[in-house]
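Entry: Aspartic protease
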Amino acid sequence: MNRLFWIIIAVIGGVVLLLMANNDSGTTLGVANDAFARAAYLGIWGIVIAAALLGSGIRLGDFARNIAIWVVIILALVAGYQYRYELQDVASRITAGLVPGSPISKRAGDGSLTVTLAKAANGHFEVNGRVNGARVPFLVDTGASMIILSSDDARRAGIDTGSLSYSVPIMTANGSTNAASVRLDTLQIGDIERRDIRALVAQDSRLNGSLLGMNFLDTLRGFSVRGDELVLSD
């Protein structure tokens, strides 16, 4: 170990002397001084690592295998970081296929946001949104002028349905009924969020599910149907 120490000191000293002697010319042994210094730095570390390896008794084959494993791990991490947005999109699409109603959110480089909804087996566009933080499944209904919550979904979102005034007449698939006007603290569809947005709560159980109506869709930059997908642009 003492011999190795003095060898490294001698190499460092020789490199420093060469760089000092060739400072004015800008090159050492035909190589730019900066490049020569970097090569010498890496070479010295290589000597230290090689000496540590030989002194540890680890077989060269095992050492090479471990280095290869770490190189693969590092390359995988770098590739994952570089393609993180593409991988996130793939993961979202897989989730949407496994969990019906899962929105796929994607933000472009210009900051614009899109949320894509896949058509359900019944031919309608459905999405699992959140109202006041509670999960609420919605049917996207361009024929509904307002967001309409079923009484069950409203209670799940923390709305006291018993204290509401049901004075707004509405028509549902089960016939006509009355609804109450409320303000939702938050409504989230994927990464699109709206605050303090107006909605209706249907009375009793006359509405089987909640509807995502035009007063939400009108807040968007646009929406379009592309085959079996509904794309919301914000």
